[in-house]
Design goal:
CATH architecture of the largest domain: 3-Layer(aba) Sandwich
Helix content: 40-55%
CATH topology of the largest domain: Rossmann fold
Bound molecules: guanosine-5'-triphosphate, magnesium ion
CATH superfamily of the largest domain: P-loop containing nucleotide triphosphate hydrolases
Strand order of the largest sheet: 8-9-7-10-11-13-12
């Protein structure tokens, strides 16, 4: 692929003010930009040096910053990369960005453009790009571990090994085609290799459900009749006043969401409208939404005597025990809490953490973490099954080729453009 002639730059760290702001420059103009801004020769590769940064046009001092020089291809993007580790004040950052933009051939980066260049230069494959996006959004330890494994190329290595095995097999089978009158030596070996490959891929696919779970997290809906104390419990578990609480029944209408970290497992907690027959069309819509979301939830925390709606599991919760005098804690599968005094909340949280731990077992991070990856692994498996069944050598080779193609889609070795847009849309500017 054509290397990019343009040089891109962006603030790669969070919004100022911050202690340190990292500005990244990538492309053929990165080295000249660094010498222009510092007025000095390039520092030794990968060595932090303190430099005065001056505006190339006005010679005005903009900051005193650490600068780093990563000559390609041993850089994140594979191109020449320069980094400025500056003071993270808004005026410093604005001045540096303006100075970079004033240099010929430099332009601000699009979201995810550094990573896109890294992909294009083969520094990363698509599974690593996906994992990198996951790493940046990871909120819990389990998400971080899984994303780190993917970013390190765990799935990439497996898929590439399978694919090269397949390509070798195809060569064997095709050699047989060329010498059709000779005894068929490759076929028994090929059959065993195809079966072993299919077994490995099926095993990897087994982790897909867990991988998706860790990435997307679990969903917990708080349900019950109006005024039961759902929003109060929701706020207490979120440890923030997210939902409006009033003594008026029917206060909550829309679904509210907060993220919980259940012992490293991410979860989304939903507050919902009180369930009852309502003549108010607005409230009725809220109740319909509540039922839909509860039905899709992994767990329903139900504050009420009537049966809990939907969900795969339900835990009944009796709230307001400060009024009834009931003892806090979980007895006979019913949690007794008070959102006002906090009694019983620790027990409920411990229960939730244990439940999440059962839903998403800890251990080896999952290999397959995205539906896209699982899709092409299943396609590869189907093609391998066809290759196993097929007696005709031409059709067998064709099925093997289809399997190799499917694996190539996972890493982006084949047709990457189809998916690049969707994947990179998740990135922020500067990544
Ligand atoms: N004493 C006491 N009052 C509570 C407790 N939890 C909620 N309340 C009160 O009960 C009333 C209703 O609380 P909410 O949390 O708004 O109840 P809700 O189930 O979300 O109500 P809707 O959104 O209208 O369906 C409010 O006046 C709360 O202050 C509790 O644990 N103890
Ligand atoms: Mg409410």
């Amino acid at each position: 692929m054509m290397p990019d002639a343009t040089t891109i730059f962006a603030l790669s760290s969070g919004l100022p003010p911050s202690g340190v702001a990292v500005l990244r420059v990538s492309g053929p103009g990165a080295g000249p930009a660094l010498t222009r801004l510092t007025g000095r020769p390039l520092p030794p590769p990968r060595t932090a040096m303190l430099r005065s940064i001056v505006h190339p046009r006005t010679q005005h001092l903009l900051d005193s910053a650490l600068v780093l020089w990563f000559p390609g291809p041993a850089s994140f993007t594979g191109e020449d990369v320069a980094e400025l580790h500056a003071h993270g004040g808004p005026a410093v950052v604005a001045g540096l960005l303006e100075a970079l933009g004033s240099l010929p051939g430099l332009r601000p980066a699009e979201p995810g453009e550094f990573t896109r260049r890294a992909f294009r230069r083969g520094r990363l494959d698509l599974t690593q790009v996906e994992a990198l996006a996951d790493l940046i959004t990871a909120e819990t330890a389990a998400q971080r571990d899984q994303a780190l494994a993917g970013a390190a190329g765990r799935l990439r290595q497996r898929v590439e090994a399978w694919r090269s095995e397949l390509l070798a097999l195809m060569a064997d089978v095709e050699a047989d085609l060329d010498f059709a009158d000779e005894p068929d030596v490759a076929t028994p070996r090929a059959r065993a290799a195809v079966a072993a490959l299919a077994h490995d891929i099926a095993q990897a696919l087994g982790s897909a459900h867990l991988g998706e779970r860790v990435r997307a997290g679990l969903t917990i809906a708080v349900t019950g009749p109006p005024n039961a104390g759902k929003s109060s419990l929701f706020n207490a578990l979120a440890r923030r006043d997210v939902a409006i609480v009033t003594a008026v029944p029917g206060t909550t209408r829309d679904i509210l969401e907060v993220r919980l970290d259940l012992g490293g497992v991410p979860a989304t907690l939903l507050d919902t409208a009180g369930l009852h027959e309502s003549a108010d069309p607005v409230e009725a819509l809220g109740i319909a939404r509540a039922r839909t979301r509860a039905a899709a939830a992994d767990l329903v925390l139900h504050l009420g005597p009537d049966p809990a709606p939907g969900g795969r599991t339900a835990l009944r919760v009796v709230s307001k025990i400060d009024e009834t005098g009931a003892a806090p804690g979980i007895r006979d599968g019913v949690a007794h809490v008070s959102a006002v005094t906090g009694a019983g909340l620790a027990e409920l949280e411990a229960w939730l953490v244990a439940w999440a731990g059962r839903e998403v077992p800890q251990g080896e991070p999952a290999l397959v973490t995205h539906a896209r990856q699982a899709h092409w692994l299943r396609a590869a498996l189907a093609a391998l099954a066809e290759a196993e069944r097929e007696a005709d050598a031409v059709l067998k080779a064709e099925a093997l080729r289809a399997a190799a193609h499917a694996l190539g889609r996972i890493t982006g070795a084949i047709d990457p453009e189809d998916v690049l847009g969707a994947i990179f849309a998740r990135f922020c500017i500067g990544k």
